[in-house]
Each structure stands twice: as C-alpha cells, then as structure tokens.
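anyone seen this seq b4? input:
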Amino acid sequence: MKVLVTGAAGFIGMYVCEHLLARGDEVVGIDNLNDYYDVRLKEARLARLAGHPGFRFERLDIADAPALAALFAGERFARVVHLAAQAGVRYSLKNPLAYAQSNLLGFVNVLEGCRNNAVEHLVFASSSSVYGGNAKMPFAESDPVDHPVSLYAATKKSNELMAHSYSHLYGLPVTGLRFFTVYGPWGRPDMAYWSFTEKILRGETIDVFNHGDMRRDFTYIDDIVEGVVRVLDKPATPDPEFAPLQPDPGLGTAPFRLFNIGNSEPAPLLGFIAALEKALGRTAKKRFLPMQDGDVPATYADTERLAQWTGFRPRTPIDAGIARFAEWYRAHYSDIP
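predicted toks r here
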C-alpha cells in the first residue's frame, strides 16, 4: 500500500520508512528539514532511504496547508504515519510559537488531508509527556491527563483531542501513540543520552538534573518501530464497551485509540549513565543540578493495551540498546576519540 510518513528525516521517521519499504510498501516521506538540530544528520538519514526504489521524498512543511492538501489529493495515500512535530520539552520554554505552528496548525492540516482523501488509518505520535504531573505509576491510557507541565506536552494532548474530534465527526480511524523516551542509533542530538555520550567521550562534565533522582522508561528504537507498524496494520475501531458515564480517555464510541509504547521497566538515570559508561569504557564527570522547568521525575508505561491489541510488548534491555547506540555513535563520529 502507499503510505505517507511525515517527519521522514527524523529519528523514528527514518526507521519507520525502512520497515515499511522492507516489506514492500510504497512510501512517500516529507520533512521540512528545519535546523532545530544538525540538518546534516537528517540528510544522512534520508541518504539511507534514497536507495530504496519504493521511496520518494518531498521537502514540505506540514504547516503549509495548500502544499500539503495538494500532496494528499495527488497521491491518495492508503494510510498515514504522522511523526513530524516540533520536539523537545525544554525548547518549548524558549520558542513556543514553533510548537503552535507545527504541532497545532500542522496537525490540523494533516487531519484535513486524511478526512478529505479517504485515508484508511492515521497513526500519529503523541508523547509520555502528556501524563505531566501524574504521580500514579505506571501511566495508563485510562488515566486523566489534565495537568501538562510543558507547552510541548500541552500540544501533544491537544493533538489527541483534535484527533478524537475528527474521528467522531468524520469516522476517520485514528490511533495515537504515546512514546516513552526513545533512544538508539541515528537518534536525536537534543536528547540527554546523546549529550552524555558526546561529553563523556570528550572528557567534559555532564549535567545530571534533580540530583540524579530521576527514572525514565527508556525505549529502544526497534521496539518503537515494531509497535508503530503493528498498530498501523490494525486500524482503530470504536470500543463497544465504552461507558459515557465513566469515559476512558484512550477509547471512545468513535474509531479512536491511544496506546503507550514503552519498555515498562523505568531505569534510574544514574543506572542509565552507568550503562553508558560501561559501553563507552569511560567514567563520566557529573554535575548534579536541581530539576529543570517542564521536566518530570519519572515515567513508566503500562503497555497492557498495546499487548492486547497487537500481541507486542517492547522488551529490549537497556544494556543491549545502549551498547548498540554507543557502537553506532563511535562509528558515525569517528573524530571523537
């Protein structure tokens, strides 16, 4: 089938494209190649995809409504994986308008493209950040998410609400995926594990926030992509047992579903750093700092619904995933000793 992947030059986008192409799908990838982080890395990811005969790339900004509408009308996609977004919790404190432009306006444009062109299933990236100030662990899709602690999180919750409204009004099957701290080769330079690796190899000091008292549900990229594709292959349906008097945020009478994709094994931040030190053969110099604005002390995914829907649970151990990332990083950035 023909699939549109937005954010194709991104970390998750590249891998999703590769997976779909490997099984024989035709993939059109779009990305605006903005400079939020090193554009050369994005171009290198696209270069990996360029050799596939079933892949075509267009440089396009999802906030450009006429251009996106023309693409949808001309291509008639069967399904859409929407991964393009302005990412980053901390950056949203500095440049909020970028999030409104991409994550809100851009998302409406994607929804319009899907509903006007008979798309069979839209799968979009949400985030574990929607759980915000929630203290109940593990985070479940049935939990209320009414207290985001960053604008980034608020835009992701907004995406879920917008998607449900389109699903309800137009019968569009839509599934949102709440990703939990994705890591691995070809990852994002703005993520902590990337910064830690660079600084450890250079002998520089790393900043450890909340004095190291943090836990994250680190999820390896292969597990994320497997979850995305399995969900894509099973379009959302209405929940026949939905109870309006006790509404579940992750379900509905519309063809709408939300799923967590996480490793379900939250790791202490200091344990994650120790795994990175082992993989790199170096000891980190650490500077312990207070919690940063917009951050949360812990994330922990309940993935029971994902397992019931797709038969899949992420399971890559931290040590194995970090070792693969460290090996890739040293090969890709061979100028670092």
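The mean pLDDT is 94. DSSP finds ten helices and 13 strands in the chain. kinda curious what u guys think
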